[in-house]
Amino acid sequence: MSIHINAKKEEIAETVLLPGDPLRAKWIAEEFLENAVEYNNIRGMLGFTGTFQGKKVSVQGTGMGIPSTLIYCHELINEFGVKNLIRVGSAGSYQEKVKINDIVIAMAASSTSGINTARFPGAHFSPTADSELFLRAANFSQRENIAVHAGNILSSDAFYEEDENEYRKWAKLNILCVEMETAGIYTVAAQHGVSALSILTISDSLISGESLSAEDRERSFSKMIKIALNTAE
Ligand SMILES: O=P(O)(O)O[C@H]1O[C@H](CO)[C@@H](O)[C@H]1O
Ligand SMILES: O=c1cc[nH]c(=O)[nH]1
What we know:
Elements: E1 15-18, H1 22-32, E2 34-40, E3 47-52, E4 55-60, H2 66-80, E5 84-93, E6 103-111, H3 115-119, H4 131-143, E7 148-155, H5 167-172, E8 177-179, H6 182-192, E9 195-205, H7 214-219, H8 222-231
Parallel strand pairs: 1-4, 1-5, 5-9, 6-7, 7-8
Antiparallel strand pairs: 2-3, 3-4, 5-8, 6-9
Helix pairs in contact: 2-6, 4-8
Organism: Autumnicola lenta
Domain Nucleoside phosphorylase: 16-219
GO molecular function: purine-nucleoside phosphorylase activity
């Protein structure tokens, strides 16, 4: 039991899927896990544990942005012994070739967040994916003929940018898409010696202006969840 998660230690698996949206966590538990049990409802930030192909897996909503997400990651790692953090999030495309509903695996996460500039004044830390989780996700996708993009993404502190052209400077450096948590998750994983990977589905395009509905963001990301569950040990 921790401040934000009212579970017993053994109720949470070593591998946890992390959607920002707690209702996506509920949908994942209902659609993909067997014998799923809700272990957390503090602040409505739902968490569930069940099995996938015989493996114990948990899924925990994190809320939006790095500060909220780091609370859950910190408690999952330090109070519940979690070893693998797999984010399953939505993202906005910065590239023409990255289309709505495409999947992006984040090899690294650039960021506008202050977490690492505060830690290393005058220097830069590069938050990166765990190589084993990355290879498992990439190999599974290839075997199943699921097309994925892999590369550098941006974890932003802002969903709504004041300057709508702000994204272009990141796009020029081949940043594939924007979301709001991965740089924090990769950093906290490195800090505690655990593994992390972010798998994202494109819900918006800054290029075409297309956007998925709230219902689609909650309940339509099956391909991404399949990759994440098959990446789990
Ligand atoms: O769909 P989730 O996982 O919440 O991720 C993305 O969606 C939220 C913004 O709508 C931010 O949390 C962003 O990172
Ligand atoms: O942070 C995010 C998440 C989804 N779509 C966006 O445009 N930005």
